[in-house]
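queue> holo job accepted (zinc ion)
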Amino acid sequence: MKSRWSEDGARDALARWAGGADEDARDLALRVYTSRLIGADPELVLHGGGNTSVKLRARTLLGETLPVIHVKGSGVSLDAVGPRDLPALELEPLRRLRALEELDDEAMVNQLRTRLLDASSPNPSVETLLHAFLPQRFVDHSHADAVLAATNQPDGEALVREALGDRVAVLPWIMPGFPLAKAVAEAVEKHPDVEGVVLVNHGLFSFGEDARTSYERHVALVDACERLLAERARGRTLLTPRAAVDESDADELHRRVALAAPILRGLLAEPPAQEGELPARGVLAWLGDPETRAFCASEEAAALAREGPLTPDHVIRTKALPLFVAEPDWKDPERLRGQLGQAVADYRADYDRYFAENAARQDAPLTKLASGPRVVWLPGLGALCFGATDRAARVAADITRHTLRAKALAQAVGSYRALPLSELFEMEYWSLEQAKLGKAKPRPLEGQVVLVTGGAGAIGVGIAEVCAAAGAHVALADLDGDAARERAEAVAARQGPGSAVGIAMDVRDEASVRRGFGALCAAWGGLDVLVPNAGLAHVAPIEELDLEEARRLADVNYLGVLLAIREATRIFRLQGTGGNVVVNASKNVFAPGRDFAAYSASKAAAHQLAKVAALELAPLGVRVNQVNADAIFAEGEVHSGLWETVGPERARRRGLEPEELPDFYRDRNLLKARVSARHVGNAVVFFASEQTPTTGATLPVDGGIPEAFPR
Ligand code: ZN
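queue> job finished
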C-alpha cells in the first residue's frame, strides 16, 4: 500500500476548506483531506467504516477559546466527508469521563451529544472517547483488510508483532465503547513512543501531531502487514479448485442467476408480521466475477463459511456467517430449488438457535432480526448478497468481496479465525443498533422490484418516478435501451441512487424479453410488480387500415403484453411470494373512438388477456389489475411519442389545432381534470401495495368519462 498524499491535493484542500492562514483552520482542512484519502481506499475502509479526528481550539460566542475535538459523524463515509461531517465537541469534559469506573453506551452517547458545539451536528462516532483520550492531535482509524488478515489468526498477535515490531501496541478484542477507549489510552500511556494501536479482530489506529504523519504512519503500518502476508503466502496455494463446478460461460452464468436469484429472493423474504400485510422483501446483488466464483468453488470455502466476518462492524451488514450451498445442481432446476430451500431453512434454524442461546444471557429483551442469510455463496455462480435496498445489498456485496480475499489470504498463511459467535452477537444486538429498529415507517413499495415496459416514454417515466418515491426499485425497460438508461439515471438522481435501472427490451421478441427479465434478475434478483405499458397508436378508418399497421400494433399492444406477463410469471413462480401485474390499458377499451380500430382492438385484446391472467395467476398469489387512463401528453420534459405520432391527425379530425388537444381532453371529463402519468403511477402503487383484496379489476384514471365507466 502506498501513501496517496500529494502536495497538490493538500494545497487544494487548504484552498477549499481552510479559508485563511489560521493554523487550526488549516489543520481541519487537512483533516478533511486525509480522511478522504483513507476513505478512497477500499482496502482500508468500506461504506461508513473507520473514523478520524483532530484536536483544535474553538472560539465561543463570548470570545473565549476552548479545546475541542472534531470527530467523524457516525454513518458518514470517509471518502465524502466535509468539515461539517466532523462535528466539534468540547474536549475537556469528555476527557474527565475517564475517571469513571463504567459508562454504559446510552449514557456515553448522551454525553457526546451534550458536548457538541453545534446542536444540529450528526451524532459523533461511538469511538469518539477513544479519540478524545489519546493525547495526539490527529488520530486515524481503519479496518484495513491486511491488518485483519493478520490479526484474525489463532496467533494473530504474534503475526502483528512480526510485521510491526514495537511500532504499535496490540490489544485483544474489546467491544467498542467506554471500556475500549480506556484500555487504548492506558496502552498508549505505557508505550508513549508507539505510532499506533492494533485492535485484534477490529482494526488499526494511528496518530501523530500533523495530518500527514498520522495518515502516512497508518499507510506504512498497513503496508508492513501486507508485505509480511505476501511473503508468508509465497509458494502456497490460496484456493484449491474443486472439479467441475465452474466451467461456465457468460450465457450459462446468466441462465443460472435468472434461476437461482428469484428462488433465493423468495426464500429470503420475511413473512408479513400481520395477516394482510406484504412480506418484507429485498433485493439481491450478484458478485459473479471470476475471483468470487473461484473462491465459492474452492475446497476452502466450506470451512471459511463457518467463520465470522473480518471485523464485527460488518455483522450489521452481512450477518455473522454466510450461507454456503455445497453442491448446487445447475442441471436440474427442481433439485436446485429443493437444495436452496433446505439450505435456507437450515440457516434460519441455526440462526434461531444462536439468537435464543445468546439472548438468554442479556438483561434487556431484544428485538430479533430477520433470520435469513444476507450473503449466499454458490459454487458455479459466485455470491448473492441480500439487502432491504439496493444500497444495503451493494454494501453487503462490497464487504463480501473484501472478506473473501482476506479470508483466503489469512487461511493460506495460517488459519483464518474470527471472533466467536457469542461476541459477534453482542455487536449484532448492540443496544445502540437495537434502538434504531422500527423508527422509520416503511414506504408502501419498500423492497419491491417493479418493471415497466415502454419505460422511456412519458407514462413509463411517470410510473417509474412514483413507484421509486414509494420505495420500489424500478427497471425502465424500453426498445431504446439508451433512452431507458438515460431516463433511469434521471429518476435515480431524484429518487436516490440505485432506485432505477434502464434495460433494453423489445416486447415483440421472445428472446429479447427473456434477456431483459434475465438482466433484471442479475441486477436485483427478481420481480414483484410488472407494468406492461409499452404501446403504439395509429389513426385510420377500417376501410383504409393497412394490415401491416394493424399487425404492428397487435405485436406491441397485445402480444407484447402477453410475452411480458408470461416471462414475469416464470419469476413469480420461482419466488413464491405473490406479486402484481398492472396493465396500462386504455379508456378506449370501454369507449372506443372511430378511426382508432387498430389501437382500440389491440388494447381490448390485452384487457381480456389480463382478465384471463387474473384467473390463472391467483393460485400464485399474483393479482392482475388494469388502469384505463385517458390521453396523457407529457411527463416533465418527456413528450408522449404516441401522441406525437397520432396527435396531429386526432386534432384534425376533431377540428382542433394539436396544441388545443390537452384542454379538449380536460374539458370533456366530469372532474375537468388533466390526467397525468403520475396519476397512472399512483394507481400502480395502490394496486401493488395490496391495500384491498382486488384482482381482475379496472381502475379508470380519466377524470370521469361516463361512456368509459367499467362495465
Ligand atoms: Zn472501528
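queue> The mean pLDDT is 94.
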